[in-house]
Amino acid sequence: MIRNTFLFLGTFVAGALIALVVRAAKFNPHAGHEAHAGGGGDYKPMVSNPIAPAVPTSAPTPAPASEQKASDPHSGHGSPAAVNAAEQDRPVNTVCAICGMEVDPTIPTLEYKGKKIGFGCKMCPAKFKADPDRYGPYYLRNEVIRN
Length: 147
Known about the structure:
The protein is mainly alpha-helical. The chain has a domain at 88-147. It has helices spanning 2-26, 65-70, 80-89, 124-130, 132-141; strands at 110-112, 115-117. Strands 1-2 form a two-stranded antiparallel sheet. A hairpin with a 2-residue loop joins strand 1 and strand 2. The longest helix is centred in the first third of the chain and has 25 residues, at 2-26. The protein is elongated, with a radius of gyration of 27 Å.
């Protein structure tokens, strides 16, 4: 009986090791992901991490001096009314307090204490509506809730 148990366990372990070696040899995590719809490769992170260093982006090349002189000197300025309207439409937070993702501008905002709150995913507004006093202060401070 003991001999049969050891024989079974030895065979089981040997088979598991062989399966592990074969699977590791054939594993290719990038297979089938060469071409994504929409030009792929530039992925938006699912969770923003304020502690992580910012990823440098390529700096725009300045326009030649001849083009700068020809442009309107007031092109970057907007009327105060236009600036205030744009400021009011933007949420006060850049990070969703519930899920930790960056605020998605396509998701409708909600108001909390007279300020617009943005959300990272479609499930967060329902959670916020269920308990706004729990989540609201975190949104106003632009922090993620640590449970």
